[in-house]
Amino acid sequence: MTIACETLIDGLLLGALYALFGLGLSISLGVMRMINIAHGDFIVVGAYLTSLTMQLAGMQPLTSLIVVVPAMFMLGWLLQRLLLNYVVGGSMFAPLLVTFGLSVIIQNLLQETFTADTRSLQAGDIARRGFELGSVSIGVLPLLSASVAVLLFALTHLLMARTHFGRQSRAVADDPATARLIGVDDRNFFAIVTGFVFAVIAIASVLYAMRTPFSPSAGPERLLYSFEAVVLGGLGSLWGTLAGGLVIGVAQLFGARISSGLGPFFGHLIFLLLLLARPNGFFSRQAR
Amino acid sequence: MLRTEGLRACYGLFQALFDVNIRVGPSEVVALIGSNGAGKSTLFRSIVGSVRVSPGSVWLDDVAVGGESERRQLNRGVVLVPEGRQLFPSLSVLENLQLAARNGRRGQWTIERLFDELSALRPLGKRPATSLSGGQQQLVAIGRALVTNPSYLLCDEVSLGLSPLAVTDVYALLRKASAGGTAVVLVEQNVNRALSESDRFYCLQKGRVMLEGESAVADRAKVAQAYFGV
Amino acid sequence: MSEPAALSVQRNGGGAKPWRFAGGLPIALVAVVVLLAFLPWYADFATQRLLVEVFTLFAIAFAWNLVAGYGGMVAIGQHVFVGIGSYSLFAISDTFHLNPWLVLPIATLCTATAALIFAGPMFRLNGAYFAVGTWVLAEMARIGALNTGWLGAGAGMPLEMIGEFDRWSRNAYVYWAALIVGIGSFAIGAVVLRSRLGLALMSVRDSEAAALACGVPATLARLSLWVIAAAITGTAGAVSYMSTLQVTPDASFSLNWTASAIFIVVLGGIGTIEGPVIGTAVYFALRETFADFGAWYFIGLGSLAVAAMIVAPGGAWSLLARDTNIDPFGIRRRMPDNLSGNHARSDDWPA
Description:
The complex is a heterotrimer.
Chain A lengths: L1 H31 L6 H19 L7 H18 L10 H22 L15 E4 L2 E4 H23 L1 H11 L1 H6 L4 H26 L7 H15 L4 H21 L4 H15 L11
Chain B lengths: L1 E3 L2 E5 L2 E7 L2 E2 L4 E5 L6 H9 L9 E3 L2 E2 L5 H7 L1 E4 L11 H11 L7 H7 L16 H13 L5 E5 L7 H16 L3 E5 L3 H7 L2 E6 L2 E7 L5 H9 L2
Parallel strand pairs in B: 5-10, 5-11, 8-9, 9-10
Antiparallel strand pairs in B: 1-4, 1-6, 2-3, 6-7, 11-12
Helix pairs in contact in B: 3-5, 5-6
Chain C lengths: L23 H14 L7 H26 L9 H17 L3 H23 L4 H20 L10 E2 L8 H28 L1 H11 L1 H6 L4 H27 L1 E2 L1 H4 L2 H14 L6 H16 L4 H17 L4 H6 L30
Antiparallel strand pairs in C: 1-2
Helix pairs in contact in C: 2-6, 2-9, 2-11, 2-12, 3-4, 3-5, 3-9, 4-9, 6-7, 6-9, 7-9, 11-12
């Protein structure tokens, strides 16, 4: 019983991180209808950037966010402005190949710069600490990650619901052509959206790198989990992505209990079974 | 004065507008008449920036503005109410208006003023925009354009699919806009309505201006001829 | 638009005849095929192995193009069939001690059956859901194979029976199998697209609602295409691994197969029959010239993909065919010129 409880809690905590991976993807899919195949690779870029910042400036992982988040925002802004704006809005295949190309470029550039070895962030004390809740033991870092994830979801929700930026995002997600008619300046607006997405990626990457060793080729797996979270929750639903991530996390860890090494397999299995039950995701607007 | 000069518009290899010259004076109401496919919507979209045209084909107060983006035209006071209303389903009525107002120009048309004129809509502010009736949605769509305080309001088929009562409300709002100094350009399939609500009219057929004149003294036979191409 | 002229949509337009391979095509093709067929007698093993890679990757890319470009289904996980095809071949050949070439059709059948089974769940999904669903399916297959003892788990399986053949025969037979797969996939594709199935698919691609309203059996059309493409992919995969002599989960169920296919197809021109040909040529030209540069080769490849999409989102073939009248294989359908004096191409209509 305790083991089941612990697995459940650990799964939820891991799942929250997966949800955070998916948050950025959910926004860029929803607002710009663009599948960014390099999404997972940018998470890895964030991890390497953090590692570099820690080395050069002697900072702790969490404090290096001060550098990494703005840097990633700028990267996203520039990427959208200089490159992705040219392929948004047309057929879906051009963005698919462009981001595939980016993915290949990033993985190989990282490999050339940092070698193919895995590395991890020295998270220090926080990675080892845990506390007892009844008979269940919970790690501080996973709890922190999950809290940050939920907080970011809440912040994004508020951003989308209450601000001009959020209204524009929802309008563009509904109907890009009409949004242009009432003054949404595509080029600039999309750049800001991607900047925001990358800022979220930055936070996710630091939390991820603090608990898992990473390498240049770790991107595609992050992308897959991000996709699973977004798709299961339903395209266009913010909280759906959180729910989706939680499910995947729990499924993976329970799977790992049954047979270590088959964690992701069970995650995939549950994903497929649930998706088949609700082919448009659980909380998508079309699901009704 | 908003005018087009030798306006040509193409979709890929297909030419939709041939050498179109129209003009709209400040505070005028002008009607565009024509059957489906005549090019009326394309003309609007060319003026407002959704369709690429050459700079010299659209002039606003003697400045060549052709081919500029929708945002730029909005800032200059040229705005389109698109066919089919196209309200944003994910936004409430109020949010649709707020979005436009924030992006638009300052002026007499505030959201408050709009709700004063359309008091029936005020209590519906928080409702999802597309949950309103067709007529109400059309009023909101026009209102959404109005709160950007345009000098030239282009209205594409605003009476389509509406009940006679709703159409009356719509035209009442347009008259208020016109009274406030905004020029209105209407695309209207109902020829009688178009002529009775406008000062001048243009008749389009297959992308060309076939006829133009003063609405009050329009020769109905000639209009029918230009409309149907008979 | 206001004249209801009698529309006659002819196969290749009523105006200027598009340039097609006329009587020259059959002769030229036959000559090329004969040349290729006799290759084992005048080329070395390295060349043969390279051509095996070319033909099998071409077939896989071509199949992906059929499904994505003509069927409108982007299957990021289509490489699952590479793994299924190759594993079926190896497993059956090893277990029953059968000649691998005789097992090849069985591997094709296995893949087609798998495709039918997968279609059940996968066809419930659309768009991005379908894309990710197939990818997850492929991942599950990979992990499954990785953890299955009698399939060799991580180390995979060798093709034992191939030892029965001498080196020359082995290379030649694999080469011929690849040649047949390469040419065959193209031929099947061309035939399908010129058939009623092709017409059905293109109508569904343009507008599913309208196609259904016209009585087009959309689901059946998609299913047929899916199974055909899977069969091609599986066979090509099987032949490819016959050449390498060892099949492993990480290699045969690798996303790289689909990534290469996407590169070839989108670069060459998706939804066209000529695109994959160009794309494959470019891919291998680059690989043979620059592969020694290691990571920089891949960076260059990625950059090319990015740059190409900015310049020509329709791929290389769109640059060639856009304003010219080239239609070598008679796939295009165009409106006749005499309609209001203007050319009109359906892909240019306002949305």
